[in-house]
Amino acid sequence: MTKIELETGGSVWKLLVAEGDVVVEGQTLFILEVMKMEVPYEAPQSGTVTTLHIAEGDSVAEDDVALEIG
């Protein structure tokens, strides 16, 4: 199980996956808006999204867990 943790705070601008989706390494999972910049987060490995901890529009903080890939 790999937990995707946020490197900075911001708001979830776009969520591109759902629980149960199969993702490949390098695929964009979601995009944060941080100080008017779009920051994409990519899958560090291939697998299945097992748990989402974020939703579009959420305000998030540094080190929050965004999602888990199994």
Explain this structure.
0% of the residues lie in helices and 54% in strands. With 70 residues, the protein is mainly β. It has one domain (2-69): RNA polymerase II/Efflux pump adaptor protein, barrel-sandwich hybrid domain (OB fold (Dihydrolipoamide Acetyltransferase, E2P), Beta Barrel). It is globular.
How many DSSP H or I helices? 0
Q: Indicate the overall shape.
A: globular
Report helical residue fraction. under 10%
Radius of gyration based on Cα positions: 11 Å
What is the CATH architecture term? Beta Barrel
Strand order of the largest sheet: 1-8-6-3
Binned strand content: over 45%
User: Any idea of the CATH class?
Assistant: Mainly Beta
Order of helices and strands: EEEEEEEE
Low-confidence stretches: none
> What is the CATH topology descriptor?
OB fold (Dihydrolipoamide Acetyltransferase, E2P)
Number of strands: 8
How many domains, as an integer? 1
Can you summarize the main beta sheet?
4 strands, antiparallel
Helix- and strand-based class? Answer: mainly beta
User: What is the terminal-to-terminal distance?
Assistant: 4 Å
CATH superfamily caption: RNA polymerase II/Efflux pump adaptor protein, barrel-sandwich hybrid domain
Give the mean pLDDT: 97
Provide tags for this entry.
70 residues, mainly beta, OB fold (Dihydrolipoamide Acetyltransferase, E2P), globular
Topology:
Blueprint: E1 2-5, E2 10-15, E3 22-23, E4 28-34, E5 37-42, E6 47-52, E7 59-60, E8 65-69
Antiparallel strand pairs: 1-8, 2-4, 2-7, 3-6, 4-5, 6-8
